[in-house]
Amino acid sequence: MAIQNSITLSVDVEDGINIAMRDVFGKEMPPTERVVANTERILDLLEGYNAKATFFTLGQVAEYYPDLIKKIHSKGHEIGVHGYDHHRFDKMAPELARSQLSRAKELLEDLTGEEVAGHRAPAFSINEQTKWALPLLAELGFRYDSSIMPCRAAHYGWPGFPDDVTEIHFSDGNSIYEIPMSTMRLGSRKVPCLGGSYFRLLPYRISQYSIDKISKRNTPVFYMHPYETDPERYPDYYFDELNKVSTVLRLKMKSMWIGRKNFPDKMEKMLRQNETMTMVETS
């Protein structure tokens, strides 16, 4: 099959179990080894197609599993920061954000021996209310950010932000490139389209259609999480907590398993039809 387009491929390296245990059930715990196995599954898949990606990684994952970071780097992929422990910017004061970003950046740079150029906020949580994060990122030495969904979505989004890569200048003389997430028009609305639950839940042809359309104006940005490749049952302690929440929340959490078994096959289709590049190449 002929290669059709180039896409910017990104992986948000986080553990689905420990984040759900904290954010949904209020139970603090370290990341589990599932994040290692799931990320290595993605690395193997990419290697089969000589594809490169940017792995936006939590500092907490780097602390617990430093060999995973070294392995990602040794395969020629870019390493970026995804925060320290997946706290959203709208849940942090600027002082805490500075501390967590600095900690994560230093950890990853120590492990790779290279400067980290890029950042992605957990849950795309940079928007009009948290835009104070952008000059902070520039001050900390990040060359680019890729956190803004330039449309209105259920829990995130910055409607009106440009669709194209944009250099933002600040009063202190610093600047940063913003690489926004890809969107498509659905009637009069712009909607998210490439990656995550959209890739899991929708037929593959819709994702490829989106890639083809977006490629006519700029490079599509695709994102995913390692846990989306993991169809295996979570530990019993997870379900012990899940059974305590409301029926609506329980159904919402269970919906996150839909499409996981087919995710790797869809990824292979995408890699066969499209070349990939890292985020830093886009900026």
Summarize the structure.
The longest helix has 19 residues, at about 95-110. This protein has helices spanning about 15-25, 35-50, 60-65, 65-75, 95-110, 135-140, 195-200, 205-215, 235-240, 245-255, 265-275, 280; strands at about 5-15, 55, 80, 120, 145, 165-170, 175-180, 185, 190, 220-225, 275.
Order of helices and strands: EHHEHHEHEHEEEEEHHEHHHEH
Fraction of helical residues? 25-40%
Tell me the count of domains: 1
Q: Based on Cα principal axes, name the global outline.
A: globular
Q: What is the CA–CA distance across the termini?
A: 29 Å
Explain what you see.
- The protein has helices at 16-23, 34-48, 59-64, 66-74, 94-112, 133-139, 196-201, 204-214, 236-242, 247-254, 263-273, 279-282; strands spanning 5-13, 54-57, 78-81, 118-119, 144-145, 166-169, 175-178, 183-186, 189-192, 221-224, 274-277.
- It is α/β, with parallel strands linked by helices.
- The protein has a single domain (5-282), classed as Glycoside hydrolase/deacetylase (TIM Barrel, Alpha-Beta Barrel).
- A hairpin with a 2-residue loop joins strand 8 (183-186) and strand 9.
- It is globular and about 50 Å long.
